[in-house]
Amino acid sequence: MHFWDYRHYLLELVKVELTQNYKKSFLGVIWLIILPLMQSLVWIFLEKTHLLNPGILRVNYIAFVIIGTMSWQLYNYSFDQMGNSISSSVRALMQGYIPMILIVISRFSLIFVRFVLSFIVNVIIIYFFLDIKLHVFSFLISIIPLMIFCLSIGMIVSMIEVVSEDLFILGKEFNKILMFLTPIIYSPKVESSFLEYIISMNPLTYFISVPRSFLLGEEQTLIDNYYKYCFITAIFFILSLILYTKKARVVVEKLVE
Amino acid sequence: MMELINLEKVNKKFCKRLTYSLLYGFMDLFLFKPSVNLRKHEDWGIHNIDLKISKGEYIGILGKNGSGKTTLVRTLSGIYQQNSGVVKVDCKVLPMFVGNLALNKFYSGLDNYYIMGTLLGYSRKQLTEKIPILKDFSELGDDLYNPMGNYSSGMRIRLRFGCVKALMPDVLIIDEALSVTDIHFQKKCTSFLMEYTKHNTVVIISHDMSLIKDNCRRIIVMEKGEIVMDTEDIEAAINYYKTQ
Q1: Which of B23, B93, B122 sits opposite A96 (nearest CB)?
Q2: If interface means Cβ-Cβ distance under 8 Å, which residues of chain B face chain A?
Q3: Which helix (H) or strand (E) covers residue A248, if one does?
Q4: Do the domain assignments include residue B4?
Q5: Minimal CA separation from B113 to chain A, in Å
Q6: Contact across the interface for B119 and A9, Cβ inside 8 Å
Q7: pLDDT tens across A175-226, in order?
Q8: Considering the domain boundaries, does residue B2 fall inside one?
Q9: Residue of chain B with shortest Cα separation from A5
Q10: For chain A, what are the domain ranges?
């Protein structure tokens, strides 16, 4: 069978990915909207009640944080959920020959749908509660490199997770630190020069800050490095894809019951 | 006869120790040329396998536990990737192992049928048209709409055979799966398989000698990961297996 013959199967896998986590829930897939809604409303509540006072800023801090958090979650979900995509697909892999790339695409589709729904919810909330003019199109274009970066990370981590649980756990712990080294709730410009250097080496700094600046209509100060990391990510993606298509099946036998 | 599957000099090795197995797996991921020779604690699952399977064959695979039967059929199915050699598969293969009968226990038998069917390249519309065949053969009635987590082993086999009848894959691979169903359905399946092999192929692993003797037209006997006998003389193959 050719790859094209698996298109119906891919669609079924995507449906399974989207619905299986909520099979035991009464609200079902509505959770995909409730969670980002609750998250954003908490920040809006903090601002409206003046419980949060970040001082005088050029942009609206709440919108800054909401968009930053949403973009970070795209990366974090990719690491966690695509990371175990192979090991949690044993039953699918036992059904016979499946092009391995279908496993990663179907899992990424769940993360993508979750991100899109979260984006729609957040845009509506920012528009109605904070009254900010948003440049949605520029954001959607500039967020693509982050998605490609996440997909690449997901492919690599999913293979490593099967053969080295230790590295996967270390990676998850590293992500907790990485969250503080990524300008999600603060600006990339910090007082400590050492910290600023580390932040400047972190690709997520550019993949999160630049689309966010586009969305909020801020002045772009990181665009040169953004392009540089886009190029590096493109190469990283090609290498990950080659490695995944050639080697992912090697690790499957470690899982088969 | 039209050739559907061709294995040439196929080797598949396994590591007996989990720690080494994971270590080798990690090394093989990042090495340009993974090792094809045996390393410490590794052994051949199947070794030097040359095998051709054609349309319309009914093949029984015999061998003691650990002789490589399951590894061979999992390699044929595309579940395992061989370490060396060539595996050519030009057809739709549906494996039926005791461990792979439910894709997702929270989904109904019918949902699982759709998933299985799309894996064989059918569209949802084509699969919907074939539901009466599935219902008729499986005799599952309303249980078809219940989650597969509630199914007994026998019901899972019924669903799987219903799927086979509806989807008619080119090659059906059965690994001990028939033994868990009741006598009535077993008889129904064996007579269906005889009909099925007029145009399709069955590869069956079973320790039920009467099943093998009455149905198979070719026998492969395996020992220590190698094919030691491949013959159409059923009596001779069964006698050889019994004296192993």
Answers
A1: B93
A2: 14, 21-23, 25-26, 28-29, 34, 74, 77-81, 89, 92-95, 97, 99-100, 102-104, 106-107, 114-116, 118-119, 121-124
A3: helix A223-252
A4: no
A5: 11
A6: yes
A7: 999 998 898 888 777 778 888 888 899 999 999 999 999 999 888 888 999 9
A8: no
A9: B121
A10: 57-252
> At how many degrees (to 10) do helices A100-125 and A144-163 cross?
130
Q: Identify the residue among B21, B23, B24, B26 best suited for mutation to test binding to A, counting A beta carbons within 10 A and taking the highest.
A: B26
Q: What percentage of chain A has pLDDT greater than the value 70?
A: 97
Range of the domain at B210: 56-242
Please give the C-alpha separations between residue B198 and each of A87, B55, B104, B136, B171, in angstroms, as whole numbers.
Answer: 39, 9, 32, 21, 12
Residue in B closest to A9 by C-alpha: B118
Strands B218-223 and B58-63: parallel
Which tokens go with A76? 């974090």
Q: Considering only the beta carbons, identify the residue of B29, B118, B121 that sits closest to A247.
A: B29
* Cβ-count burial A76-94 (b if 16+ within 10 Å, e if not): bbbbbbbbbbbbbbebbbb
State whether residue A239 sits within 8 Å of chain B by CB.
Answer: no
- Structural domains counted in chain B: 1
Pick from A8, A16, A97: CB nearest B123: A8
**Which of B4, B23, B46, B103 is the best substitution to test chain A (most A C-beta atoms within 10 A)?**
B103
Span B112-160, pLDDT tens digits = 999 999 999 999 999 999 999 999 999 998 999 999 888 888 888 899 9
Q: What is the ipTM of this complex?
A: 0.84
Banded pLDDT at B216 (limits 50, 70, 90): very high
pTM of the model: 0.85
Query: Do B95 and A252 lie within an 8 Å CB cutoff?
Result: no
CA dihedral A83, A87, A93, A94 (to 10 degrees): 180
Residue B45: its H or E element? strand B42-54
Per 3-state DSSP, chain B is made up of helix, strand and coil in percentages (nearest 5) of 45, 25, 30
Cα–Cα distance for residue pair A200/A177, rounded to 1 Å: 15
With respect to residue B41, please indicate whether it lies within any of the assigned structural domains: no
CA atoms of B165 and A241, how far apart (whole Å)? 37
157-186 in chain A: CB under 8 A from chain B? 159-160, 162-164
Under DSSP, is residue B43 helix (H, G, I), strand (E, B) or coil?
strand
SS3 B106: coil
Establish if B167 belongs to a structural domain. Answer: yes
Shortest Cα distance from A255 to chain B (angstroms)? 11
Where residue B206 sits, what CATH number does that domain have? 3.40.50.300
Is residue B102 within 8 Å of B156, Cβ to Cβ? yes
